[in-house]
Write a structure and sequence with these properties.
- This protein is α/β, with parallel strands linked by helices.
- 28% of the residues lie in helices and 28% in strands.
- The radius of gyration is 22 Å and the shape is elongated.
């Protein structure tokens, strides 16, 4: 059976932001559009710089598929990094992907030690029989949308502007795990989600947030950090109080969308002070989510 030719978007796509979406849009004229990317957990550096990924591989795949992409090829970087540019074009693009065309951003690099760019890709496309389409930068506020810019915004707690660049609210996704259940003793039960090794952790603090459970949207308030008042946690986690919800969510996958930064994480002198502040945070969250 003859394999169908594909139109393939090339990139890391760890945030699936507006710039990434512009690249993927260049494949829309094909019924057989696809994405070639790398598993985020296999990437620790990019062009010599240490990077923290914005979204998990599961989040990234879900967002890409929501954009109508039919197929995702996600590889471990270690399996590709020692290929020359010519080997990558011949074995991966023309071979494994069977691409009639590929799309990428202006800064796309490939080949051993990121030695090749879009000019080399175009020349290799002529040699191996695929077209190359290059997306122009998407600008926001006069500057290019980039994963690095979004990482900086999240590190500053600016989830509002990060959402503008991402094309949707930044979200924390993952299985609900058991915590120390301190929130229940304060009459504010919470659900807990862990961050993964190598994943970017937004600025420690309290955020207005929202959660979709089944068909219902709930307003919520999320603390990211190590809970200094209570102590004992060295790894950061996201702890979310879902306003008006009662039920057991342990073991379920949940998406928590951060809508706005309320305050930095603080250490209180007592649990009573913490409880009073949580009440204020909830009131602020309800107002800001309207």
């Amino acid at each position: 059976m003859r394999r169908r030719k594909k139109s393939v978007a090339l990139g890391i796509f760890d945030g699936v932001h507006l710039g990434h979406r512009a690249v993927m849009k260049l494949t829309e004229d094909s019924k057989f559009s696809a994405v070639f990317t790398f598993n985020n957990t296999s990437l620790h550096t990019k062009q010599g710089r240490v990077i923290e990924y914005i979204y998990t591989d599961e989040q990234k795949s879900a967002i890409i598929k929501s954009l109508g992409i039919r197929k995702i090829f996600s590889e471990n970087f270690s399996d590709i990094r020692d290929m020359s540019g010519s080997e990558f074009a011949e074995n991966i693009i023309a071979g494994k992907l069977n691409a009639a065309s590929v799309a990428c951003g202006r800064d796309f690099r490939f080949g051993r030690d990121a030695s090749c760019g879009i000019n080399e890709l175009a020349a290799l496309g002529r040699k191996y029989g695929f077209e190359v389409r290059v997306s122009e930068d998407v600008l926001y506020g006069g500057k290019a949308v980039s994963s690095g810019r979004i990482r900086s915004l999240l590190s500053e707690g600016d989830v509002t502007e990060a959402a503008e660049l991402l094309g949707r609210s930044y979200m924390i996704s993952g299985r609900i795990v058991h915590g120390r259940q301190i929130g229940r003793t304060l009459d504010f039960p919470t659900v807990n989600q862990l961050f993964y090794d190598g994943q970017l952790v937004p600025k420690f603090g309290v955020y207005a947030s929202s959660v979709l459970i089944g068909r219902w949207h709930y307003e919520s308030v999320t603390n990211i950090g190590v809970k200094p008042t209570i102590g004992g946690d060295s790894s950061p986690l996201a702890e979310t109080h879902i306003i008006g919800f009662t039920g057991d969510l342990y073991g379920r996958e949940l998406n928590v969308e951060l809508r706005g930064f309320i305050r930095p994480e603080m250490k209180f002198n007592s649990l009573e002070e913490l409880k009073e502040q949580i009440s204020k945070d909830i009131s602020y969250s309800l107002l800001s989510n309207k």
